[in-house]
Amino acid sequence: MKMSNAQDLPRHETPTSLRKPTRRGVLAFAAGAALAGRGAAAAEAVVGEDGLYHEPWFLQSFLDLREDLEGAAAGGKRLAIMWELRGCPYCRETHLVNFADAGIASYIRDNFEVLQLNLIGSRKVTDFDRQELTEKELAQKYGIRFTPTFQFFPPSADGLETKDAMAREVARAPGYLKPPHFLAMFRFVRERAYERGSFRDFLAANG
């Protein structure tokens, strides 16, 4: 499998005793209750205490990547990780321009679970190989240097733990993409076009 990324462009089964239904169910219930209470405003990104913009439809996670990928697959979706940093102007642009586009947001919500991580964050994340790292350490492990960066993973977690970290991805989008190319990157992954060629090839073939 050839991994492609946006640089081609020209310039949840669960913690030990409680398994997936319980853990993911608790988060889903909490997220649903919060959205119900906020009504129409739920569609808008809000800035959290961490200084990052948060979409109400982003994945609510116990930060176990294998669990999150399996949960996404069970719902017929793919897993993407969005890396951000407080004060990042292009992260803000992604939220207030790209995700604010109803068509783009609808496509991503319908086809992906998006897990938001902080490039210098201290929350503990369990990687596919069961290694527990802080967000910052995980970013270093995967060579994440820019924000926003999107990582996209295969439809199944099978065998991922035996691969080198960056070989676990099927695609990566480092840096900001304008809305048309942004949507195209998600389509590129959803349609598994990375199995046939690069992102550049996909753009050329799809106008």
Structure annotation, total helices: 7
Approximately what portion of the residues adopt beta-strand conformation? 15-25%
Strand order of the largest sheet: 1-9-8-4-5
User: Number of folding domains?
Assistant: 1
pLDDT average, as an integer? Answer: 85
Q: Decide which structural class fits the backbone.
A: alpha/beta
Remind me, CATH topology? Glutaredoxin
Termini separation:
24 Å
* Largest pleated sheet: 5 strands, mixed
SSE order, one letter for each helix or strand: EHEEHEHHEEEHEEHH
| CATH homologous superfamily title | Glutaredoxin
Residue ranges: pLDDT <50 for 5 or more in a row? 9-22, 24-42
What is the 3D shape? globular
**How many E strands?**
9
List keywords for this structure.
5-stranded mixed β-sheet; 7 helices; Glutaredoxin; 207 residues; two-stranded antiparallel ribbon; alpha/beta
Can you describe this structure in just a few lines?
By secondary structure, the chain is α/β, with parallel strands linked by helices. The protein has 7 helices and 9 strands, in the order βαββαβααβββαββαα.
Please give a structural write-up.
It is a single chain. β2 and β3 (53-54) form a beta hairpin. The protein has one domain (4-205): Glutaredoxin (3-Layer(aba) Sandwich), CATH 3.40.30. It is built from 7 helices and 9 strands, in the order βαββαβααβββαββαα. It is globular. The protein is an alpha/beta fold. The protein has helices at 20-38, 65-74, 89-98, 102-111, 135-141, 179-190, 199-205, and strands at residues 4-5, 46-47, 53-54, 78-84, 112-118, 124-126, 132-134, 149-152, 171-174. Strands 1-9-8-4-5 form a 5-stranded mixed beta sheet, sandwiched between helices. The protein has a two-stranded antiparallel sheet with strand order 2-3. Strands 6-7 form a two-stranded antiparallel sheet. It is 36% helix and 16% strand. The model is unreliable at 9-22 and 24-42 (pLDDT under 50).
